[in-house]
Amino acid sequence: MRLATNQERFYLQNRRYGGTADLPALGFAAALSEKGAYAITVPTANADTFTATATVTAGGSFDQSTDSECQTFSITAQGVRTATPDPNQRCW
């Protein structure tokens, strides 16, 4: 959610959404979540939209890699949130 908020700030200054290379400007210098449990990428970003993805990674302040239900989270500029595999629809 922090990344989505920072994307809107980035958009106001740059007239486009930030991609993976812009993660430091979006507040994610190491391309990791705040506690280091998720690796962050922004594979889709342009003047109209973005899709950001957080994928569980071992290490960090806490290890989420054993959470078999919530391995990957995504959010778009339109606020569409998905998670995989999310069999019980409870990750977000």
Please characterize this protein's 3D structure.
This protein has one helix and four strands; from the N terminus they run αββββ. With 92 residues, it is of the alpha+beta class. It has one domain. It has a four-stranded antiparallel β-sheet, covered by helices on one side. The longest helix has 13 residues, at 2-14. The mean pLDDT is 92.
List the helices and strands and how they pair.
Layout: H1 2-14, E1 38-45, E2 50-56, E3 70-76, E4 81-85
Antiparallel strand pairs: 1-2, 2-3, 3-4
Give me some keywords for this one.
92 residues, four-stranded antiparallel sheet, 1 helix, 4 strands
The gist of it:
This protein has one helix spanning 2-14; strands at 38-45, 50-56, 70-76, 81-85.
Q: What count of structural domains?
A: 1
Shape: globular
**Order of the strands making up the biggest sheet:** 1-2-3-4
β-strand amount: 25-35%
Number of strands: 4
Low-confidence stretches: none
Please tell me how large the radius of gyration is: 13 Å
**Order of helix and strand elements from N to C terminus:** HEEEE
The chain-level structural class is: alpha+beta
Largest sheet: 4 strands, antiparallel
* Oligomeric assembly: single chain
Quote the distance from N terminus to C terminus: 10 Å
Total helical segments: 1
Work out the helicity level. Answer: 10-25%
- Estimate the mean pLDDT confidence: 92
